[in-house]
Amino acid sequence: MPTAPCHGGRREAAAQDAREDPVTTYDTIVIGAGMSGVTAARMLADAGAQVVVLEARERIGGRMSTDRTAGFPVDLGASWIHGIDGSPLWELVQTIDIPTIEYTVGSFQAGGRPIENFDGEGTRMDAASTAQWVDDVATADRLLVDEIERSSPGDTYLDVTERALDRSGFAPERIDEIREFFRHRVEEQCGAWIGDLDAHGLDEDAIDGDEVIFPRGYDELPRRIAADLDIRLGHMVTRIARTDAGVTVSTGHGEFSARSAVVTVPLGVLKAGSIDFSPALPDAVAGPIQRLGMGVFNKIFLQFPERFWDESSYVVRALGEAGEHWHSWYDVSAVSGLPTLLTFAAGPFGRRMQELADEEIVADVLVALRALYGEAVGEPTAHWITRWGHDPFSNGSYSHLAVGSSHHDHDAAAGPVDGVLHFAGEATWGDEPATVGAAYYSGHRAAERILGHDVDLAAFAAGVRAREQSPTS
To answer: What is the CATH number for 239?
Structure first.
């Protein structure tokens, strides 16, 4: 099956043609062609609504961004489905036959899969010390759950982790390793510093079942959902006005009017005030947008001439002082067939690193790897580096529960406002924010609210599949 049936590389041309469409008034305007936007638009269009999608970028997918210039996919944005058991997102992927690879460490686990652990001195840990480490984390996590339950408003995740570690009774060096692990877990899950995350910031961090990645690139999913939708690329929205008739949306290509709108731009764009809302958003929505945090999570892919780590390992992980900055390298060689490690720079470290040139970043990563493997680490043959904090169409990577916010804020940010303005995207879904699943489910919710009736997700997935198989597609 081709990567993008029914539209393939013709999507941009179709979008350009759509700009000449004489229709100027719509049932719904969807702002943003990421996962939540194309989901909402597809569901509304399937119900017979006249829908237009306005996308500022020159591509579909938003923070699901796949680079294929090297002849194989490199997912610069989202990579994982975090937990496939009972997941409607997983059911969608299966229904439309997108291949996946099991890769169950994307949730920053201490164990569960083969991981090469190095202690604070940079020494490879044997089986016994690794088992002790995994048990230490499990013990500390049990204490942490208790401290979170006892926490008071205003407590940070740093506060509760320190209290849990104080109660652990572990030796200082073991505490140091777990402290670093907790800090990096927050960075990878939230793109934030542990002291900026609310004590309840990882309450929803539950993974049910295996995790998977996408050997053909994750952006295949939104592009296939988006097939044949009226999507206007390069249309940056600057103003959304609520009127008696609905909404009027202003772009550099003119104004669009509709009875309703779904705003799916990332939280970072909303927080930056890049879109002028007239009248101003009510506090019921503006308050959550202000309180929630937007994290930075950048990726660094390094491709090597040969593998220097164990072939069976999922991850190389440096603990304690050895992993203060660069601490985890994920083996994603299965995607390209070439030896490739993926590491992350997140939170304040990620913001600092994205200011550096590629060469400086790569050199810094190599210093950390060679502290573990010595001269076995060759010079990379290729690299890919992201700077999501500099992207004006996202202003960060994904949302998190900043101190002073609550889980309710995620869902409250969805609106609606005056019955005509809806919000969707990972930041508006409280059960599992910062995931593609959250984007998918929030787009589904927005479509249901506009239509006024339920939309069955299994039937939706089957419809995407059937449309691709239609002779007219």
So the answer is: 3.50.50.60
